[in-house]
Write a structure and sequence with these properties.
The protein is mainly alpha-helical. It has helices at about 15-40, 45-50, 60-85, 85-110, 115-160, 165-175, 180-190, 195-200, 205-230, 230-240, 245-285, 290-300, 305-320, 325-355, 360-400, 425-430. Helix 4 (about 85-110) crosses helix 9 (about 205-230). The two termini are about 65 Å apart.
């Protein structure tokens, strides 16, 4: 019987062929595994940089740069011109907002007992009443006193020239300078009303200045009423411009700033009232000229930090010379004593509750604000300094405290425990 030779296709009977096919199969598996591993790995930075297209060359167009720069300069000049034109209006708005913030604590205190609209009406009526009362109390008296001064001017000037004070000054300076002749020329100059008008720019300029002052005061009062009535809605609208996740902190800082400004205004007005009332009482007792007018001058001067009280005291003491040198000397002694009492007793008790600003910063802020913005600048300088301190304490310091170690300085030895991988993560990685 014939024997059948059955062979499966693809298989060789020799061991060498089978070994060659096995090696070829293992090589194919290794290549496939290497390809999968290469695909799973992230490409290196060098490979990514090699795949990126080269940066295009930059062409600098001098004409375009000059045109854009020129347009920017023109826009800046236009904005500066607009601000300069609207400077008076901006001053009115700033003063009205300042007064509204100052009156808001009184409104909030009354709001605990009566509705807010009624509280605003009461506070505003008190302010208007005080303003009108001062005008009706001072203006007739001022007109009367000025009339008496004009009528008695020759007599007063002659009495001053013949006073012991002038004789003492003349004996002190000697014959090198004639005090009588110099004072006679000064009195003769002020005796002519036309010279006074020329100093003020003429009767038209003086009238325009008075009318402008009255108009400005009325505008400020109206704006103060509007700001006081809509202060909360203005704050709410302002908060909407801040992202929601920062709105709560921004509102808290803003409230602290507005409260500091309000407390400062109330404290400064309180100091000014004390100075004005005490000046009126004392100057009336010693027989000084125009006690209500001098008391008003002391009140206004006390509204200006640091230099206001001193300036008003010098002016009031100098005006007392028209009565006698003894009255002026008594006024000087009184104001020296009062300034010490205000500096060491009244001001610390009142202003420390209002704004917590170090003494050195108060001096720097007052002089800096006065140099930049005159009297208004000196008035707002201290609350601005208090606002800056609040912002630094509530925003800048917490932001700096939250920064521990910069990321570019974190190394293997400096890695904080918060960012070190745990044991479980190590084993998982291994």
């Amino acid at each position: 019987m014939k024997r059948l030779n059955l062979r499966l296709p693809g298989f060789s009977a020799s061991p060498e062929d089978r070994e060659a096919r096995r090696a070829k199969h293992e090589e194919a598996k290794r290549q496939q595994a290497a390809a999968k591993e290469a695909v799973s790995k992230a490409p290196s930075a060098a490979a990514i940089a090699a795949l990126r297209p080269s940066a295009p060359s930059v062409r600098i167009n001098a004409f375009r740069i000059g045109l854009v720069g020129g347009i920017g300069v023109l826009v800046a000049l236009l904005l500066g011109s607009i601000v300069s034109t609207l400077s008076t209006t901006l001053i009115y708005v700033g003063v009205a907002l300042f007064l509204a913030l100052g009156l808001d604590p009184l409104v909030s205190w009354l709001e605990k007992k009566v509705p807010r609209p009624l509280a605003i009406a009461i506070v505003f009526l008190v302010v208007i009443g005080a303003f009108v009362g001062i005008i009706f109390a001072i203006v007739p008296l001022l007109v009367e006193q000025i009339t008496n001064l004009v009528n008695d001017y020759p007599k007063i000037s002659q009495q001053f020239l013949n006073s012991d004070f002038v004789a003492w000054v003349q004996s002190t300076v000697g014959s090198s300078f004639d005090i009588d002749s110099a004072l006679s020329d000064v009195f003769a100059f002020f005796k002519d009303p036309n010279n006074l008008l020329n100093i003020g720019g003429g009767i038209v300029a003086v009238g325009a200045g008075v009318a402008s002052g009255i108009t400005g005061a009325i505008i400020v009062l109206i704006l103060t009423l509007y700001f006081l009535a809509s202060l909360r809605s203005m704050k709410s609208v302002t908060y909407r411009f801040v992202p929601a996740y920062r709105r709560e902190g921004f509102a808290q800082v803003t409230e602290e700033i507005t409260q500091a400004v309000g407390r400062y205004v109330v404290g400064q007005i309180s100091l000014a009232l004390v100075n004005g009332v005490l000046s009126f009482i004392f100057l009336s007792i010693i027989g000084a000229p125009f006690p209500p007018l001098l008391a008003l001058l002391a009140f206004i001067g006390s509204m200006i930090p640091l230099v206001g009280t001193l300036s008003a005291s010098i002016v009031n003491s100098a005006l007392c010379l028209f009565i006698s040198p003894q009255v002026a000397l008594i006024a000087i002694i009184y104001y020296l004593v009062y300034m010490q009492v205000e500096a060491y007793i009244l001001s610390p008790r009142i202003m420390n509750r209002a704004v917590a600003v170090p003494g050195a910063l108060v001096v720097i802020a007052a002089f800096g604000g006065g140099a930049l913005g005159g009297i208004l600048g000196a008035l707002v300088a201290i609350p601005v300094a208090a606002s800056v301190i609040i912002i630094v304490q509530k925003v800048v310091f917490p932001s700096q405290d939250a920064k521990l170690v910069p990321e570019h300085k974190l190394g293997d030895a400096e890695t904080p425990a918060a960012v070190k991988p745990s044991a479980g993560s190590k084993s998982a990685v291994q």
